[in-house]
Amino acid sequence: MTPPVNNITRFLDAKKIPYTAFETVNEKLGALETARFLGVDPARVFKTIVVTREKPKKSILAIVPGTGDVDLKSLASALGEKKVFLPTEKEAEQITGFQAGAISPLALINKGFQMVIDSSAQQFAEIHVSGGQRGLNIRLGVEHLVKLTNARIARITRFA
């Protein structure tokens, strides 16, 4: 079965970025469910969390491993902010234009988001991120993701 083609896969193809697309079920899957579905290490499946600032400036995309949660204090500190906030799922969907479970850093390049990838990503050559629609997961090199998204790398994950 061929995974769906969308703007993200076309963008990666056009940039000649190597990636692998995986088709999952067409419903909201968390990072841990996605890892189980694909049979991969959950520490390699990263989720994209929308975070807002106190003053209405650029929203932030925190890209963290599915095995943890975004640490708002660490994220604020990494960005030189006093405080950052988690919007509701509905607000995150309004901010990004994507359904929860399909918010992808690759779909939001050049859309005014500041991106921060948790430093744990650096232990892997490749990680998984959302493909910008439910049912599509993309595995690509961490270096490519950082370069494409102009992301900052920082320790921003809190593990339970």
Layout of SSEs?
Layout: H1 7-14, E1 19-23, H2 31-38, E2 46-53, E3 60-65, E4 69-70, H3 72-79, E5 84-85, H4 89-96, E6 114-118, E7 126-130, E8 136-141, H5 142-149, E9 152-154, E10 157-158
Parallel strand pairs: 3-6, 6-9
Antiparallel strand pairs: 1-8, 2-3, 2-5, 4-10, 7-8
How many helical elements? 5
Low-confidence stretches: none
Order of helices and strands: HEHEEEHEHEEEHEE
Number of strands: 10
User: How many whole angstroms does the radius of gyration measure?
Assistant: 14 Å
Structural class: alpha+beta
Can you describe what's shown?
The protein is α+β, with helices and mostly antiparallel strands and 160 residues long. It contains 5 helices and 10 strands. The strands form 3 sheets. A 5-stranded mixed sheet has the order 5-2-3-6-9, sandwiched between helices. A 3-stranded antiparallel sheet has the order 1-8-7. Strands 4-10 form a two-stranded antiparallel sheet. The radius of gyration is 14 Å and the shape is globular. The chain starts with 6 loop residues before the first helix and ends with a strand.
In short:
The chain has 160 residues and is α+β, with helices and mostly antiparallel strands. It has helices at 7-14, 31-38, 72-79, 89-96, 142-149, and strands spanning 19-23, 46-53, 60-65, 69-70, 84-85, 114-118, 126-130, 136-141, 152-154, 157-158. The longest helix has 8 residues, at 7-14.
Which key phrases capture this entry?
single chain; 160 residues; alpha+beta; 5-stranded mixed β-sheet; 3-stranded antiparallel β-sheet; globular
